[in-house]
Write a structure and sequence with these properties.
Layout (H helix, E strand, L loop, with lengths): L12 E5 L6 H6 L7 E5 L1 H16 L6 E4 L5 H14 L3 E6 L1 H14 L2 E6 L11 E6 L2 E6 L5 E5 H6 L2 H12 L1 H15 L5 H16 L9 H21 L8 H12 L6 H17 L5 H10 L13 H10 L16 H10 L4
Parallel strand pairs: 1-8, 2-3, 2-4, 4-5, 5-8
Antiparallel strand pairs: 6-7
This protein binds NADPH dihydro-nicotinamide-adenine-dinucleotide phosphate, 1,3-dihydroxyacetonephosphate and zinc ion.
């Protein structure tokens, strides 16, 4: 008897375009969300977007509660949960980069209230996904969480954000190529749950971004449009898969390890891009697609070397040779690669 079942949880309203931040209240009302909003944001996004959203609610006689977070941590999530228990909000709104959105997402899951995602940077593909990603000591948790009920992505705000945030988002998408290679390998060798639809959507998203690379230029609002649609699509792939597998393989393990070894040095997307060059080399060898990945990153101004990530060569070697320990996710790194092998792949790909 056929006994499989799945839940694919997706946002209902995805609102993208110029000035749509001013439609946030409308997007919320259309979902019939009631009660006081709890806005989770971080310092810069607060000035750029959250205060504007507060004004919109104030014009309707609603006074949102705001929690400002500085880092992605379980302490920050707990602070949001504690505030939510005090004020009993009707729903949450995450306004900012990956950190604010992940925290809002995970707190919303804990307190059982819906959440709306308002990205201020096209820097990562968690803006739509049903996954939260939080470092915790020597490990990192990628946990199931509430997907947003709505996403409000204002391309004017995204286009005015520092250019490197957009190139980080592009690199996060380009890394889907190696994430899917790792996923297929893990399916073949370890029988991990695999979704052909999730994999195909993830690869197609990377393909479309790369084929539009010429239109992704600083100051062009169209660039934010292209990138944010790719980020939404990649997030949907994760929701279809029910895991971050379509968008996170060994290149993400490398990045998560760098967050421990060299915290705050480079953006998530930029680290996974460089990781992807090296893991593509491990998958397909000297004449494989690693050169295409490097060219794609280069064409959108994303880093391709350790120096551009502000890293020492030995930090790259350490991260690559130890990152398999970060979590139980089978990838091309298997049970780890030797330091000399890691140095060799980093040298051969020009990363160091
Ligand atoms: N759940 C998921 O599926 C995924 C989660 N992630 C997670 O997302 C995080 C990375 O996201 P990322 O966005 O790079 O990190 P942050 O949220 O830390 O944002 C990066 C920087 O950009 C600033 N910023 C945000 N918006 C603007 C703007 N419009 N103008 C100027 N500065 C701005 C932030 O300011 P400030 O310091 O003031 O906040 C911060 O300094 C990681 O924690 C990663 O694990 C990534 C991919 C997928
Ligand atoms: O960054 C992500 C996808 O781009 C999320 O993946 P993780 O599950 O590795 O945190
Ligand atoms: Zn990522």
């Amino acid at each position: 008897m056929f006994e499989k079942s799945t839940w694919i949880r997706l946002p209902r309203n995805v609102v993208v375009g110029h000035g749509v931040i001013d439609q946030t209240v409308e997007a919320v009302r259309e979902l019939h969300l009631q009660g006081q909003p709890l806005i989770v944001t971080s310092p810069t996004p607060r000035e750029i977007a959250a205060d504007r959203i507060v004004e919109q609610f104030a014009a309707e006689g609603v006074d949102p509660e705001i929690v400002e977070v500085e880092d992605a941590s379980f302490e920050a999530i707990q602070r949001v949960i504690d505030t939510a228990r005090e004020v009993d909000p009707g729903f949450l709104i995450g306004v900012g980069g990956g950190k604010a959105i992940d925290i809002a997402k995970m707190a919303s899951d804990d307190i059982g209230r819906g959440f709306v995602s308002v990205p201020t940077a096209a820097s990562h593909d968690g803006i739509v996904s049903n996954r939260g990603s939080v470092p915790d000591g020597g490990t990192r948790h990628s946990v199931a969480a509430e997907p947003p009920l709505a996403v409000v992505a204002d391309t004017e705000i995204l286009a005015n954000a520092p250019w490197e945030l957009t190139t980080a988002g592009c690199a996060d998408i380009i890394s889907n190529y190696t994430a899917v290679m790792d996923w297929r390998l893990a399916d073949r060798l370890k029988s991990v749950p695999y979704s052909g639809y999730g994999a195909a959507l993830s690869e197609m998203t990377a393909e479309m971004l790369v084929s539009n690379a010429d239109s992704i230029r600083p100051g062009l609002e169209e660039s934010s449009w292209i990138v944010v649609k790719a980020l939404v699509s990649s997030g949907v792939a994760m929701s279809i898969a029910g895991s971050s597998r379509p968008a996170s393989g060994a290149e993400h393990l490398f990045s998560h390890q760098l967050d421990r070894i060299a915290p705050g040095r480079a953006l998530h997307g930029h680290q996974v891009g460089v990781g992807s060059i090296m893991t593509a080399y491990l998958h397909s060898g000297e004449d494989g697609i690693w050169t295409d990945i490097r060219s794609a990153l280069d064409s959108i101004d994303a880093p391709t070397t350790a120096a551009e990530l502000d890293l020492e060569p030995e930090e790259v070697v350490e991260a690559l040779s130890t990152c398999h320990e970060i979590r139980d996710r089978y990838t091309i790194l298997g049970d780890g690669i030797e330091e000399d092998a890691a140095r060799s792949v980093a040298e051969k790909t020009g990363v160091i």
